[in-house]
């Protein structure tokens, strides 16, 4: 099967060995690649008795079969393994160009185990992997680390690295690459930190083989034109352009998910553009250019995208743009997830307001809207001290430590609910509850279906009554599968692509006889294996739910009066995914998927 | 002939306005919006609900929100 460069490097940092294995392309027929293939390869090695920060816990960093090909918006890579944040299956993707250069350096993926004695980095270059000392990078922020390593390995190299949060083993630490691009969620920065691995440098100019260059180029021309047309305003305004659209529908969480309105005139895409000199930045080979760079206090910084702007904005009742930009820069520099940080800080603010915090802690936690308090709390998060220690461990563990009911913790399977209010779209709520890594807006962004923004007629994905899923559970399942494909191909999900075009792209790249049926089944295979891994690590169908915090209707805004009753849709969801009535994955399916260990 | 109140998503860079409709249908509003906004594909909502049926009759003074596809991730 083409699209792969044919090698995976297994790096053991404890004994300093690197074993190069052939990419098991036979498995790609079942899982396509990317996070699906990684899940399959890690299946037996993710064990409940091995904690995510222990030496024996592997971390996989994979590109996908379309990564680095002419397929537009396909520069992504995924970091996966046992999540330091949730303890279950974890995966986090990022753009930039690291995934492309990893393949050009000769590898489809890396599987990293063990722990180096001192801080090190990996140099992946022209088919070889070397372990190099990084003691001079200790304590450096992510921008400084990238700059330093590019001085050594050239500006064409791409660097994925951790900041101080990762070094300090903060469970919400990110992996940052290509300036401020982030594999933000699930805490894999801490996983790399636990291995004393500061960075991975990829460098190389190798070819990526594809089955049909001509078919791919024709397809790419069409897709480039389509994406340019459908994402014109995303290019002009970035994802912040969604702010007032989401607001209209009550999709923007406010004051730790307790309110539905805020002064939208003070905080929208136009205001950001008026306030700062902004220009667009694109990942490798992407016509969309959703990234922002802006001038802030005399320097150029990566601008906040929608999720971050809301996490550090309305969610905390903060409408000061400077504070949001600075908070985003802090998170990028130190390398931690903005969604998890914002939600956990919001949770603490909520408890403070409700008089539910222990006396000593109450003084330390800022009130909603306290701009200076927000920035100080985030600085403490990177350093793993003060209330930052609580923020850094995420909302689920913080609730447990404080003895507060998990019903108040805005998370599913330990992953904080992102900035799309589940009460604004019942389909989104069901997607959150059943997502392969917990509450995730990228593995089932059904809010966009309900707004009429995403459609795939062949898969019955179309807009409808957002308060009711009657007759549309299939659409939720199919969208989750389409998004799973994005993470297996490693394609950006902002470039929404109907299934039949995904199949054409896969065929042109791999030469494998993909059809809509076997492609969709591969997505289901991938979801099934990830679910099995999480269940092996202690999760269960009982986790397919939203916290009680969301059982109370909002009294204002575009989600007024809606309480998603997702339990009634679960049986149909399980059936359509091919799972048992109780939500478990059929034993025979798992046996079939993981049966053949030899490739 | 009816008049409706139209507001636009901020990225469309248009101020709120009243729009006159002869037939009063969503389909007519879609045509007018296409003339004003060019090739930008947009959706329509009112009262927090998505409007899709071109034959839908709008009411006098009904408020309609027009918004484009913008990735919200």
From TrEMBL, chain A:
InterPro entries: Ald_Fedxn_OxRdtase_dom2 (IPR013984), Ald_Fedxn_OxRdtase_dom3 (IPR013985), Ald_Fedxn_OxRdtase_N (IPR013983), Ald_Fedxn_OxRdtase_N_sf (IPR036503), OxRdtase_Ald_Fedxn_C (IPR001203), Tungsten_al_ferr_oxy-like_C (IPR036021), W-dependent_AOR (IPR051919). The keyword 4Fe-4S applies. Gene3D superfamilies: Aldehyde Ferredoxin Oxidoreductase Protein, subunit A, domain 2, Aldehyde Ferredoxin Oxidoreductase Protein, subunit A, domain 3, Aldehyde ferredoxin oxidoreductase, N-terminal domain. Residues 4-206 form the Aldehyde ferredoxin oxidoreductase N-terminal domain. It comes from the Bacteria. The keyword Cytoplasm does not apply. SMART domains: AFOR_N. Keywords: 4Fe-4S, Iron, Iron-sulfur, Metal-binding, Oxidoreductase. Its cofactor is tungstopterin; [4Fe-4S] cluster. GO terms for molecular function: 4 iron, 4 sulfur cluster binding; electron transfer activity; metal ion binding; oxidoreductase activity, acting on the aldehyde or oxo group of donors, iron-sulfur protein as acceptor. PANTHER family: ALDEHYDE FERREDOXIN OXIDOREDUCTASE, TUNGSTEN-CONTAINING GLYCERALDEHYDE-3-PHOSPHATE:FERREDOXIN OXIDOREDUCTASE. Belongs to the AOR/FOR family. This is Aldehyde:ferredoxin oxidoreductase. It comes from Desulfofundulus australicus DSM 11792.
Automatic annotation (TrEMBL), chain B:
This is Molybdopterin converting factor, small subunit.
């Amino acid at each position: 099967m083409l699209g792969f460069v044919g090698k995976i490097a297994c790096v053991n940092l404890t004994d300093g060995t690197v074993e190069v294995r052939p990419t098991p392309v036979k498995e790609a027929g079942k899982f396509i690649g990317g996070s699906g293939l990684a899940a399959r390869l890690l299946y037996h090695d993710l064990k409940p008795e091995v904690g995510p920060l222990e030496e024996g816990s592997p971390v996989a960093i994979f590109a996908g079969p379309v990564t680095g090909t002419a397929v537009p918006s396909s520069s992504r890579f995924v970091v996966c393994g046992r999540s330091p944040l949730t303890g279950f299956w974890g995966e986090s993707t990022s753009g930039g160009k690291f995934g492309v250069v990893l393949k050009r350096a000769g590898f489809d993926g890396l599987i990293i185990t063990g722990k180096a004695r001192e801080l090190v980095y990996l140099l992946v270059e022209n088919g070889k992997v070397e372990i190099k000392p990084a003691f001079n990078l200790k304590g450096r922020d992510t921008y400084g680390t990238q700059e330093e390593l590019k001085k050594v390995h050239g500006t064409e190299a791409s660097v994925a690295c951790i900041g101080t949060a990762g070094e300090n083993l903060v469970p919400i630490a990110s992996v940052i690459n290509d300036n401020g691009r982030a594999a933000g969620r699930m805490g894999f920065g801490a996983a790399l930190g636990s291995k004393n691995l500061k960075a991975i440098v990829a460098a190389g100019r190798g070819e990526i083989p594809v089955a049909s260059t001509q078919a791919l180029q024709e397809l790419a021309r069409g897709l480039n034109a389509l994406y340019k047309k459908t994402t014109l305003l995303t290019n002009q305004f970035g994802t912040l352009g969604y702010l007032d659209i989401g607001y209209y529908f009550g999709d923007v969480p406010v004051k730790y998910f307790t309110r539905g309105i805020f002064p939208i005139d003070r905080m929208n895409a136009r205001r950001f553009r008026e306030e700062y000199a902004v220009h667009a930045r694109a990942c490798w080979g992407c016509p969309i250019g959703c990234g922002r760079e802006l001038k802030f206090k005399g320097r150029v910084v990566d601008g906040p995208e929608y999720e971050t702007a809301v996490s550090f904005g309305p969610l905390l009742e903060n409408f000061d743009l400077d504070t949001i930009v600075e908070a985003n820069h802090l998170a990028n520099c130190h390398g931690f997830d903005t969604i998890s940080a914002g939600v956990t800080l919001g949770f603490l603010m909520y408890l403070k307001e409700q008089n539910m915090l222990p006396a000593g802690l109450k003084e330390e936690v800022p009130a909603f809207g306290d701009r200076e308090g927000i920035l100080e709390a985030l600085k403490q998060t990177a350093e793993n001290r003060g209330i930052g220690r609580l923020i850094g461990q995420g909302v689920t563990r913080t609730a447990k430590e404080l003895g507060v009911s998990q019903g108040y913790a805005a998370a599913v399977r330990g992953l904080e609910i992102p900035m799309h209010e589940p009460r604004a779209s019942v389909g989104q709520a069901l997607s959150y509850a059943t997502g392969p890594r917990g509450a995730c807006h990228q593995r089932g962004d059904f809010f966009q279906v309900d707004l009429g923004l995403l459609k795939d007629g062949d898969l019955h994905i179309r807009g409808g009554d957002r308060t009711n899923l009657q007759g549309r559970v299939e659409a939720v399942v199919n969208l989750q599968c389409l998004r799973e494909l994005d993470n297996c191909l490693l394609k950006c999900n902002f470039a929404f692509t109907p299934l039949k075009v995904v199949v054409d792209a896969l065929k042109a790249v791999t030469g494998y006889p993909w059809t809509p049926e076997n492609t969709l089944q591969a997505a289901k295979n991938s979801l099934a294996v990830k679910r099995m891994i999480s269940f092996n690590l202690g999760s269960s169908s009982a986790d397919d739910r939203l916290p009680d915090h969301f059982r109370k209707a909002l009294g204002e805004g575009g989600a007024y009066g809606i309480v998603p009753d997702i339990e009634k849709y679960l049986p149909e969801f399980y059936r359509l995914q091919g799972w048992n009535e109780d939500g478990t994955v059929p034993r025979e399916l798992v046996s079939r998927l993981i049966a053949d260990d030899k490739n | 002939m009816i008049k409706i109140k139209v507001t636009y998503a901020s990225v469309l860079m248009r101020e709120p306005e009243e729009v006159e409709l002869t037939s009063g249908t969503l389909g007519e509003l879609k045509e007018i919006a296409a003339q004003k906004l060019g090739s930008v594909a947009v959706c329509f909502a009112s009262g927090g609900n998505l409007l899709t049926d071109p034959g839908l009759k709008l009411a006098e003074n009904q408020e309609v929100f027009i918004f484009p596809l913008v990735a919200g991730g």
